[in-house]
Amino acid sequence: MAVDKKYEADVAAILSHRYDQGGTLWDTPDHRLQKGAPFSTLDCVSYLLELGMDPEEPILKEAADLILSAWQEDGRIRLYPKGSIYPCHTACAAQVLCHLGYANDERLQTTFRYFLDTQYSDGGWRCRKFSFGHGPETEYSNPHPTLLALDAFRFSDYLNREPALDRAVEFLLEHWTIKKPIGPCHYGIGTLFMQVEYPFRNYNLFEYVYILSFYDRARKDPRFLEAFYELEARTVNGQIVVERVVPKLAKLTFCKKGEPSELGTKRFLEIKDHWRKMPCTN
Known about the structure:
It comes from Hungatella effluvii. InterPro entries: Terpenoid_cyclase/PrenylTrfase (IPR008930). This is Prenyltransferase/squalene oxidase-like repeat protein. The protein is mostly helical. Helices cover 44% and strands 0% of the residues.
């Protein structure tokens, strides 16, 4: 898929930030790959792919090499040169690498095994970083990193074949019922979650429904159906209208707040296509 001419200015705007932090690929000189949001290395690679840039383009191949250089022998991926490596770091990087076409790479296969070996008791993945203290809610996994891990796994042979992933899906569907902030980082389902955010960056209704729609376990569940209908009710004439976007991205054509997004609508139509293949049941 090539970038449509109408989005060439968006691509140019994203590329214009590649040296902002002193590195050459939206990174810092010491290769911090998640610093500088919303124009970090991982962010910008995701935007360019969403805009239709071919993963074989030289800049994306260079970015893939940079991300893979942070891969560790145990499957984790280090996004910062020092400090702990949390599951959320590995999930974010693995997700981007899978979108770049590396799901079958031997290193990513090790990363998938790392996730399967470190799944928390409730089915999700949990970062042991307690910025909000140690309340009872922190005994849950972190919903967004769990969702991102599932997004990576959907590119793998584990999709709809691995019971551990069904447990992760169940954890996220249960959060739809719980609603309250859970996990060490307090991910909740409230007013902000219900606003359609695009491109996918934060834990929100659109990303939640989109990623879960790849999983048979989710599509069979009435909680998924309820979330889907909530999303569908926010469309206008069948199109996704962006309700929330990071201010620094507000001038980009493909994600203007308050306007229909052609590329966002494409993702919504994918959800409907997945649903048609295996209808939800009440």
